[in-house]
Design goal:
Aspartate Aminotransferase, domain 1; alpha/beta; single chain; globular; 4-stranded mixed sheet; 2 domains
């Protein structure tokens, strides 16, 4: 039989990309191989916080690439010390562990929480309470933490130690705490779960109940961190700080980088040799991470994000008023926004893409809007025009089909 390898993809079929590829990116725009220019409201799923080919990030990576790529954590990496110190100065944290991804950062949070209780003489405390609709990653432990059947199916027994509770249910939390409870894990805004946001009072309740029961509070800020909601970290809106926090996505600006942030008391339980990483915190990642902070921590940057985000939300409200038969609700905070739709979200995403606007799907039939934090008022106006045209055409097609 003749080989068909040249006509078939050699990539796992787990990925279902849109029929679109890009030649280059600049700022908030992507230039497709089809010759079209796209306004990017996906930002690599909230990764490209500073857009594409940001000059400061390009310069930092290029300079480091000509010096040193990788030496491993057998040796000191000065960029790690600098980035860790800066993150601690602007957060609740006292210690940082660098990783390559959000899932790895979550794994470090899980291990640290369990190790904290082990070191205190309570090795039975291993259970982590999580919430329905959550998404924490794709490893065996993180899909167990998320608890969604569509991600668990076919991968054998669910990893033990994770107990799902109804979203935002204080009574359920109180009832679930027992002798084996180690920690409570929550996203300040559920991204993949449909831009669902617990109110600040619930996060403060979790902080108090953890304090009262010697539990660790873990926040998953993989998607919400590094300015995405208008604050450097989303927990700042509530005033409830965690003991452990996973970040990734935005901190690398497109380069694979994650981190577990921890209080000193939590991190002290992680003794030499109990955890490690080969690539995490390498010189390339540290150069980019520090460059991202250079920009995001500039005076007025986050205030600018909040200003443009408010305008974006106002524009979306106008859109919802114009198309009430299509849009049910606007959700989210800052530059992490969602349109809860009355029609299939993938159909609308396709319609937006045809108009040159890139967006992302989420659970609960939500369309996510995740623009780079550097978008301007003019960019928002342009996107609004694209959405207006796409939804008008969508409505016409729907009407014609009835």
């Amino acid at each position: 039989m003749a080989s068909t390898s040249h006509s078939r993809s050699s990539i796992f079929k787990t990925l279902t990309p849109a029929p679109l590829a890009f030649e280059r990116g600049e700022g908030v725009r992507l230039y497709g191989e089809d010759g079209k220019i796209y306004l990017d409201y996906s930002a690599g799923v909230a990764v490209n916080a500073l857009g594409h080919a940001h000059p400061h990030l390009v310069a930092a990576l290029s300079e480091q690439a000509s010096k040193l790529w990788h030496v491993s954590n057998l040796f000191q990496i000065p960029g790690q010390e600098r980035l860790a110190k800066r993150l601690c100065e602007v957060s609740f944290a006292d210690r940082i562990f660098f990783t390559n991804s959000g899932a790895e950062a979550m794994e470090c949070c899980f291990k640290t929480a369990r190790r904290y209780h082990f070191a205190a003489g309570n090795p039975q405390k291993i259970d982590i309470l999580t919430f329905e609709g959550a998404f924490h990653g794709r490893t065996l432990a993180t899909i167990a933490a998320g608890g969604q059947e569509k991600y668990l199916e076919g991968f054998g027994p669910k990893t033990e130690g994770f107990i799902q509770l109804p979203f935002g249910d204080e009574e359920a939390v109180n009832k679930a705490i027992g002798d084996t409870t180690a920690a409570i894990l929550i996203e300040p805004v559920q991204g993949e779960g449909g831009i669902r946001q617990p109110d600040g009072a619930f996060l403060r309740f979790l902080r108090q109940i953890c304090d009262d029961n010697d539990l660790l509070l873990i926040f998953d800020e993989i998607q919400t961190g590094i300015g995405r909601t208008g604050k450097l970290f989303a927990y700042e809106w509530s005033g409830a700080a965690p003991d452990l926090m996973a970040i990734a996505k935005g901190i690398g600006g497109g380069f694979p980088l994650g981190a577990c942030l921890a209080t000193e008391s939590a991190a002290d339980a992680m003794a030499p040799g109990v955890h490690g990483t080969t690539f995490g915190g390498n010189p390339l990642a540290m150069a980019v991470g520090n460059a991202v902070l250079d920009v995001v921590l500039e005076e007025g940057f986050l205030e600018g994000v909040q200003e443009v985000a408010l305008y974006l939300r106002q524009q979306l409200a106008e859109l919802a008023d114009t198309f009430p038969e299509l849009i049910e609700e606007i959700r989210g905070e800052g530059m992490l926004l969602g349109l809860k739709l009355k029609v299939p979200n993938l159909d609308v995403i396709s319609a937006f893409r045809d108009e040159g606007l890139l967006t992302v799907a989420a659970g609960d039939n939500v369309l996510r809007l995740l623009p780079p934090l550097v978008i301007t008022i003019d960019d928002v106006r342009e996107a609004q025009q694209k959405m207006q045209r796409a939804l008008a055409q969508f409505t016409e097609i729907q009407s014609a089909g009835k």
